[in-house]
Write a structure and sequence with these properties.
Layout (H helix, E strand, L loop, with lengths): L1 H13 L9 E10 L2 E9 L4 H8 L4 E11 L7 E14 L6 E5 L5 E3 L2 H8 L3 E7 L9 E10 L6 H15 L12 H10 L5 E6 L13
C-alpha cells in the first residue's frame, strides 16, 4: 500500500504537459589554451515548458555537459583520448521564491527567478577537454559536446522526499511516506513512464590536429 501511494505521489509530481526537448548548443568551438584542448559552448533554452513547470514547483534539475575528444582512425574504431564533464545543479529554495545554482563543487549561488536561472545556465562556458600532450602530432581528432538536461535522477531521491515533506507540512496533510525507500529501479521506471526523461543536445566538431587548433586569448 505504501509503495502504491509513493508511486502515485511521484507520478503526480511528474504529470505535467510535455513538449519536445528545447535545449540547444550554441557557440561551440574547439581551440587550445596553454597546455589544454578547450571546448567553448553555450547551453541555450535549457528549460522546455515541462521542465520549467517542474523546477518552478520545487523539483531539482541537473544539467550535465560532456566533452569527449576522439582520435579519427580510418579503417578502424575511433579511440576516445579524453573526456570531461561539468555538472550544474539547480533547484528552488524550500522557504523562499528564489533558486540555487551550483556548478560542480563550487559554492551555491542564489538566482532571483526562473528566467534569470536559465540565462545563467546559458552563459558562455569553456571546458578543459584533454591535455595537448595526449594528441599525437599529425593525427586527426574530433570533439563531441553533449548537454543533457535531467529533470529527475535517481540521485535526487532525498531532494524529492524533502519536497514532498514540505508540501505535506504546508497542506497539513500526512505525507505518503519516505520516497527514499522506493526501489531505485522503480523510480527510474516511473520517471520513464511519465515522459520525464532527459532532453539532450549534441554537437560534433570537424576533424583537427594539435597544430591546427586555434589559440584562445
Amino acid at each position: 500500500m505504501r509503495l502504491r501511494m509513493l508511486a502515485c505521489a511521484v507520478l503526480a509530481v511528474l504529470a505535467v504537459p510535455l513538449r519536445a526537448g528545447a535545449v540547444e548548443l550554441r557557440g561551440t568551438a574547439v581551440a587550445r589554451s596553454g597546455e589544454w584542448t578547450i571546448a567553448s559552448l553555450r547551453a541555450e533554452d535549457a528549460f522546455s515548458d515541462r521542465i520549467a513547470q517542474t523546477v518552478d514547483r520545487g523539483m531539482p534539475v541537473t544539467i550535465v555537459v560532456t566533452v569527449d575528444v576522439w582520435q579519427d582512425r580510418s579503417g578502424w574504431f575511433d579511440q576516445l583520448v579524453g573526456e570531461q564533464q561539468v555538472v550544474l545543479r539547480a533547484f528552488r529554495n524550500a522557504w523562499s521564491d528564489d533558486f540555487a545554482l551550483r556548478r560542480d563543487r563550487e559554492p551555491e549561488r542564489t538566482i532571483t527567478n526562473l528566467a534569470m536561472l536559465e540565462s545563467e545556465i546559458a552563459r558562455p562556458m569553456r571546458v578543459r577537454a584533454v591535455p595537448l600532450t595526449r594528441l599525437a602530432p599529425g593525427e586527426r581528432y574530433y570533439a563531441i559536446v553533449q548537454v543533457a538536461v535531467k529533470p529527475l535522477t535517481v540521485e535526487d531521491l532525498e531532494t524529492v522526499e524533502q519536497w514532498l515533506s514540505g508540501e505535506a507540512k504546508r497542506s497539513g496533510k500526512p505525507g505518503p511516506g519516505s520516497i527514499a525507500k522506493l526501489p531505485r529501479y522503480l523510480v527510474g521506471i516511473l520517471a520513464n513512464l511519465s515522459g520525464f526523461g532527459d532532453e539532450v543536445g549534441r554537437w560534433r566538431s570537424g576533424t583537427f590536429t594539435s597544430a591546427s587548433l586555434p589559440v584562445l586569448p
